[in-house]
Amino acid sequence: MSGLEEPRWPAHAANAVEANLVLGVALMKPRVLICSQDAELYLFLSHILEADGFASEPARGAKEALGMFDDCDFQAVVLDCGSTSLTGSAICARLKREPRTSGLLVIALIAAGAEYQYLDLLKAGIDESIPRPLSPIKLLDCLRARLGPAKQPGSNRSGNGRCLSFGSLEMRLDARRVYCNGKEIHLGPIEFNVLRHLLETPGKVFSRDELIGAAWPPNIHVGERTVDVHISRLRRALEPSTDIVIRTVRSAGYSLEKLDG
């Protein structure tokens, strides 16, 4: 949003958005509106967001961005605030003022030379300001913390994995906490790591070697009997209050399954 002329946007950026809408992909992922006149920045951001389980759409100015909320359902907005732009704080204030968009996550990307905008953006209610050159990790962490990426078909992974759930069991990875029917279950670090690996793909049988690789630090010798001991501890912790079970598959390993499955 730093200039008056609209750049020439590569055709495949718009086509990719249309394809997602036709296939319904965008509706299954948290949707992020990227408001920028920089076509290359949009393509860069859309690539990293797509890889992490988000869908994105572009808006090349304030009027277009505000108009898109009449037709689309977004969960977050990324504002590209250039050194000559005066509209970032205005867009943010408008979004935060209207009831239907007041809960949106609004992130500002602050270009070098535009540091003076920080105060105006704070007054407007900005949720997060990130200086450029952009750190993709910081942007993704901010989106993940508030929205969480979409799960991939066939697995229980949540992108970088902020929360895993199966049946009555919920694992919050950031806080390293596990809940069954809303009640917290206390696990040791090894049991937590084993359960996390099982939760990522419920129903799949994991060998003891696979569990060792996932739950124990590298370069430490762990015998199969040690795995069995930790599985027993994990079962004792889960059994009183959950509807899932860790099933032993003879000569193969363990899998996580529902009791009624």
Characterization of the model:
The protein is of the alpha/beta class and 261 residues long. It is 39% helix and 20% strand. The chain is built from ten helices and eleven strands. Strand 6 and strand 7 form a beta hairpin. Helix 5 packs parallel to helix 6, helix 8 crosses helix 9 and helix 8 packs across helix 10. The N terminus is likely disordered.
TL;DR?
The protein is of the alpha/beta class and 261 residues long.
Beta-strand percentage? 15-25%
**How do the SSEs run, as a string of H and E?**
HHEHEHEHEHEHEEEEHHHEE
Residue share in helix: 25-40%
Spatial sequence of strands, sheet with the most strands = 2-1-3-4-5
End-to-end separation in angstroms reads 53 Å
The CATH architecture classification of the largest domain is 3-Layer(aba) Sandwich
| Largest sheet entry | 5 strands, parallel
CATH class of the largest domain: Alpha Beta
- What is the fourth-level CATH superfamily of the largest domain? Response regulator
Please report the total strand number as a whole number.
11
| DSSP helical segment count | 10
Poorly predicted runs of 5 or more residues: 1-7, 10-27, 149-154
What's the number of structural domains? Answer: 2
Based on secondary structure, the structural category is alpha/beta
Shape: elongated
